[in-house]
């Protein structure tokens, strides 16, 4: 340090300039700085892709659960065994377990006079809040029935996927069919 002070000002300037040039040429931390600039968007995109895939997978599980459990109504098993709304919801929930909390599953079963009269409007109010207007009307022989399952899926990363208030997505699975001619109601075997 003392030697630097004894040098003439031109020599000191040259020394400071050489130090600055050396600092500018150093790129030891460039990779870390570049990664820190790219890391946040990269991880955001990765989590969005994973969440989108999970939502599509959950939708397929819902569709399968509704299709499988709707057969109980279409073939008359639910009517002949005297299923209540809670028992049918339990049958749907058994087929959709693992991905869904059964307490958050809503099952709507309605009969219609014709396929043209079916209304499938989403049960959301103007603010995007779910309106629970579910019914349980399994119908009789040869009647048209629509079974719908609803679930409020929380959305964390992919905000364009949310269609409800509170960053949630209302997931829906639907099955529309005509009941088979299953015959008179028979008491279940003991």
Task: List the main descriptive attributes of the protein structure presented here.
190 residues, alpha+beta, three-stranded antiparallel sheet, rod-shaped, 5 helices
Share in helix: 40-55%
Number of helices: 5
Mind summarizing the main beta sheet? Answer: 3 strands, antiparallel
Give the helix/strand class. Answer: alpha+beta
Q: Give unreliable regions as ranges.
A: 186-190
* Total number of beta strands: 3
Note the overall shape: rod-shaped
- What order do the strands of the largest sheet run in, or round the barrel if closed? 1-2-3
What is the arithmetic mean of pLDDT? Answer: 84
Strand content bin: 15-25%
Counting copies of identical and different chains, the oligomeric state is single chain
Instruction: Give the end-to-end Cα distance, rounded to a whole number of Å.
Output: 100 Å
Order of helices and strands: HHHHHEEE
Cα gyration radius (Å): 32 Å
